[in-house]
What does this fold into?
Amino acid sequence: MLGWVLFKDAITTILARLDVALRMSVLPYGLAAATTVWLRLAYPDLVGVADFGMEMSPPAGFAWLVILDLCANVLALLWISVGWHRYVLLGERPTGWAPPFHGGRILGYLGRSLMVGAVALLIGLAVVVGLSVFLVPLGGPSMMPAVVAGGFLAGVVFFYRMGLLLPAFAVDARMSLNEALAATKGRATAIAVLALLSFGLVYGLQLPLVVEGYRGLITILYEIVMGWIVLITGAGVLTSLYASFEGRSDD
It folds into this structure.
């Protein structure tokens, strides 16, 4: 099954070159992790609060630290992803304990990621609306979980299909949304399997947090390690997709 083959290829490539993956991510991900730990330890009672309400306002430095943490994590995601794509597809190795910093490519990667994410979100919402029209009148509100699941899966599948343009941009092989969709035409089932395996890994890694329910330093460190695994796996999956559908092979 192609979806399983692509997922396995992404994982085995990372494990076989774990030393490179670590050298490529220690600096950018370490900086992001440091801001996350700083935020969690400085404001342990505020992190994760979605609504402060009228009687509760966050301290002056909290918002700025949240923004710093968000920016650091987004930069780490983009920096490592671009570096991993270029390493696997072009053989561009990090010379030290950080991937080469391609500022223009990182900025362009961000813009294209937002574009792909927005289009995938719209597709997912359209599927939710379409399924609601047909299923809810038949089964009532009990059909809503299936409706939402269908929309989510559709959005993720299209994200992966269009996501080919991200590693393409990273290696200077420009690709449009239409070209990415054409390259993955007829592979929706395989990509759906790949998406389910990827999200299964993410939720599997989160299970200890749900079971334990502990929010101390050990949990923070576990979340950091889990975040690195999810990040490098996501970059690896997109790389394997591009390598498969564009006829490229690992270096």
Observations:
- The chain has a mean pLDDT of 85.
- The chain has one domain: 2-245.
- Residues 134 and 187 are 26 Å apart (CA to CA).
- The two ends are 24 Å apart (CA to CA).
